[in-house]
């Protein structure tokens, strides 16, 4: 599975339930292994201050640097949660990100990417952000990975169930959803945001 290096995976502010669901968006991946760091590296989303503070109070942080702290427990390999409290357009906002701590500059690059993305003057979403939001917000029972029922070259690709009208419910590859199918899967308040140019 090929994923972008830094990617926003949820539009809006995740509440505690959503935050915990997104901590392991790839739990259903086929044949999980310690080498799955590429699935998580670079994922980020916004959380509220209560969620940020809750994460701070769970365990003593691995490190604290100004407006960020890293969780002590690693998700896989050298990937761990880094939480940020960033002032963007004069508003204090909070973010969760997965950074690879084997790269000393990863948290700083993540901070820069978040500020750049969230400083855009108009709310907008790229196609990739729309697909990531659909994946993040779809219940585990309705998303998964292509397996033996599909052609071998598709194995491991992300899938979602989609209501196909007279054809009934069909399994579709996430990255092959049409624009109309993406709009149908997005919540109403996100359907008509303008397209953003990927950075």
Description:
The chain has 199 residues and is α+β, with helices and mostly antiparallel strands. Helix content is 27%, strand content 30%. The protein has six helices and nine strands; from the N terminus they run βααβαββββααβββα. It has a six-stranded mixed beta sheet with strand order 1-2-6-5-4-3, sandwiched between helices. Strands 7-8-9 form a three-stranded antiparallel beta sheet, with no helix packed on it. β8 (158-163) and β9 (169-173) form a beta hairpin. It starts with 6 loop residues before the first strand and ends in a 14-residue tail after the last helix. The mean pLDDT is 83.
Question: How many runs of DSSP E, i.e. beta strands?
Answer: 9
Number of helices: 6
The overall pLDDT average reads 83
The order of strands across the largest sheet is 1-2-6-5-4-3
Assess the beta-strand content as a share of residues.
Answer: 25-35%
In N-to-C order, the SSE pattern is EHHEHEEEEHHEEEH
Total discrete domains: 2
The biggest sheet amounts to: 6 strands, mixed
Distance between the termini: 21 Å
Molecular shape: globular
**Share of residues in helices:** 25-40%
Structural class: alpha+beta
Evaluate the radius of gyration. Answer: 17 Å
Low-confidence stretches: none
InterPro entries: DUF1419
Protein name: DUF1419 domain-containing protein
Keywords: Plasmid
């Amino acid at each position: 599975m090929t994923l972008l290096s830094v990617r926003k995976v949820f539009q809006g502010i995740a509440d505690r339930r959503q935050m915990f669901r997104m901590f392991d968006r790839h739990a259903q991946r086929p044949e999980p292994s310690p080498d799955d760091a590429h699935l998580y590296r670079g994922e980020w989303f916004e959380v509220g201050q209560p969620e940020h503070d809750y994460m701070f109070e769970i365990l003593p942080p691995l490190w604290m640097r100004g407006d960020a702290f890293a969780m002590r427990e690693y998700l896989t390999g050298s990937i761990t949660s880094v939480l940020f409290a960033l002032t963007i357009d004069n508003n204090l906002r909070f973010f969760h990100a997965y950074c690879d701590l084997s790269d000393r500059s990863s948290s700083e690059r993540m901070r820069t990417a978040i500020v750049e993305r969230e400083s855009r003057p108009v709310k907008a979403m790229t196609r990739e952000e729309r697909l990531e939001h659909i994946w993040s917000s779809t219940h585990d029972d309705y998303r998964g990975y292509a397996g033996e029922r599909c052609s071998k070259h598709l194995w491991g690709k992300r899938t979602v169930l989609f209501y196909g009208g007279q054809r009934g419910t069909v399994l579709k590859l996430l990255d092959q959803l049409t624009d109309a199918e993406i709009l149908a899967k997005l919540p109403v308040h996100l359907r008509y945001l303008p397209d953003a140019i990927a950075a």
